[in-house]
Amino acid sequence: MKENVQSTLGKFKMEKSPYMHRLRWHSPIVKLTFWSFVFLGLILVFFFRSPSTSSPLGSDVSRRSLSTNSWGGPAWEKRVRSSAKVRSRNGISVLVTGAAGFVGTHVSAALKRRGDGVLGLDNFNDYYDPTLKRARQALLERSGVYIVEGDINDKALLEKLFEVVAFTHVMHLAAQAGVRYAMVNPGSYIHSNIAGFVSLLEVCKSANPQPAIVWASSSSVYGLNTKVPFSEKDRTDQPASLYAATKKAGEEIAHTYNHIYGLSLTGLRFFTVYGPWGRPDMAYFFFTKDILKGKSIQIFEAANHGTVARDFTYIDDIVKGCLASLDTAEKSTGSGGKKKGPAQLRVFNLGNTSPVPVTNLVNILERLLKVKAKKSIMKLPRNGDVQFTHANISSARRELGYKPSTDLQTGLKKFVKWYLSYYGEGKKSAK
Ligand SMILES: NC(=O)c1ccc[n+]([C@@H]2O[C@H](COP(=O)([O-])OP(=O)(O)OC[C@H]3O[C@@H](n4cnc5c(N)ncnc54)[C@H](O)[C@@H]3O)[C@@H](O)[C@H]2O)c1
């Protein structure tokens, strides 16, 4: 053995000799090295080609490719123009991001109903059942709203949209929502809520004319705040989740683009929105599904049996707040990336002002569904949820004329009616 090694090393040394080529292919160590490289190469090819499953950031990128869909061409532009065409006197032309989402669908439909031009944009990601997003898309399609399939990080697409339509307003609702999913896929929050928002603002600031922007922040920015009801003047520097941190970052980013480029920006802090066509990851939605299936539901309680409560806000009230924000938004003051004067910068709470304990929510659902829920009481985990939310809406009332009018009982009745007709017997089941 030793002899072999020595002889191999000896042959290796001879590589510089004139016999190099002949020796290379006949030496066992050279053959071994050659095949090792081939083997290593195959392993590398395998790893680089397969999508990452271990890294949340990697899975995010593979799931949300920016260029999966084709856009452009005369027929596509015609469709975009037609959807965004204003059909009423004094109407506005709005780009709605996240239009296939829960709030986006309702806002788009309401704008279209009153004769505004509406173009949707959504990447139809699979954070929750995409067939629900497709059903919302079909609903909007019937009322004349076209949703372009694309990502807000796709700058070329955004620029094209602004080239085809001179949008007067942007209603920015696209985001990675949900609090707990941040522990599974943190990268998706950075991708949509931070990078995506900046990408959109970059295109808006360079547009000529610049649009006015209304966008969804969240009540979650109040984080560990204990002073109630939450007012816009309260501190928002203690986020309890990555989701909340990205929304807070969005508010700071909005300030910057307003300050430097004169963009008119209005941030809306929504409080637990619910209603028909809602989001399957929210408690009222999956409680309904599980109660109907006879599955046990987990109800959280805070320390010392403290009540967990939410300021549930019905979707129609949120839509009214969004439309009023668009209607009262002043024009941006810049053009072509240059600020010409100070521009409007606003933040509003949009809530219902009456927090309801989650146990009451379950009682109402039991009555509406006529099924007794199997409940298990659990300690509120410290993974993003806060104990209660409660909105002070005096600012929105004063400046937007915002006045929520649907109580939880009435709103849930409408939700349950929709749920049963959408997922009812013989139809699809909620995933
Ligand atoms: N529903 C609530 O209770 C609530 C509360 C506070 C704040 N908000 C905010 O309101 C907005 C709307 O929420 P929702 O409940 O309708 O959520 P949703 O998830 O139903 O809608 C968001 C939509 O945005 C799309 N989207 C996500 N990332 C995108 C990207 N990078 N490019 C293009 N499209 C993308 C999604 O596919 C989805 O259809 C979000 O900004 C959310 O954070 C909602």
Notable traits:
binds nicotinamide-adenine-dinucleotide; globular; 15 helices; isomerase; Rossmann fold; 2 domains; transmembrane helix; 13 strands; NAD; transmembrane
Describe this structure in words.
It is a single chain. This protein is of the alpha/beta class and 431 residues long. Helix content is 45%, strand content 13%. The chain folds into 2 domains: 49 residues, no CATH class; 262 residues, NAD(P)-binding Rossmann-like Domain (Rossmann fold), CATH 3.40.50.720. The protein is built from 15 helices and 13 strands. A 7-stranded parallel sheet has the order 3-2-1-4-5-6-11, with helices on both faces. A two-stranded parallel ribbon has the order 7-10. Strands 8-13 form a two-stranded parallel sheet. Strand 1, helix 6 and strand 2 form a beta-alpha-beta unit. It is globular and about 55 Å long. The N terminus is likely disordered. Bound molecules: nicotinamide-adenine-dinucleotide. The site of nicotinamide-adenine-dinucleotide has 27 residues, from helix 6 and helix 9.
Which secondary structure elements does this structure contain, and how are they paired or packed?
Elements lengths: L1 H12 L6 H7 L1 H22 L6 H8 L10 H11 L8 E5 L4 H12 L3 E6 L7 H13 L3 E4 L5 H10 L4 E4 L13 H21 L5 E5 L25 H20 L3 E6 L2 E2 L8 H11 L2 E6 L7 E2 L2 E2 H14 L16 E6 L5 E2 H12 L4 E6 L14 H7 L7 H16 L8
Parallel strand pairs: 1-2, 1-4, 2-3, 4-5, 5-6, 6-11, 7-10, 8-13
Antiparallel strand pairs: 9-12
Helix pairs in contact: 4-9, 6-7, 6-12, 8-9, 9-10, 11-13, 13-15
The site of nicotinamide-adenine-dinucleotide has 27 residues, from helix 6 and helix 9.
EC number: 5.1.3.6
Catalytic activity: UDP-alpha-D-glucuronate = UDP-alpha-D-galacturonate
GO cellular component, one term: Golgi cisterna membrane
